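Question: does this match?
>
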Amino acid sequence: MMQTETVTHVMRALADPTRRAVFERVARAGEITVADLTRGSGVTQGAISQHLKSLKQAGLVAERPEGRRVFYRAQPEGLMPLADWMQHYAEFWSGRLDRLRALLEEIEP
């Protein structure tokens, strides 16, 4: 998969606020089951499963079956395409912001 496609896939996966919340809960928990994610979320187990499927396809979570249960854990490396993309723009803006800061200091010392 091309880098641009990967970034797009990660962005789409994280664009949904419920999916982001699921990802954050998985990341905080270390490992967690669908049942545990559903409890207290106000979202159905089926919806949680669909969100996890999208996160898994984007490379953001992995699953580990254990008997009848499946444990999900965050895959931080799945965020790397997005972090790399953002780093490119951070470098782009950094120089411009430094020049703006210098200009503002010239105007108002």
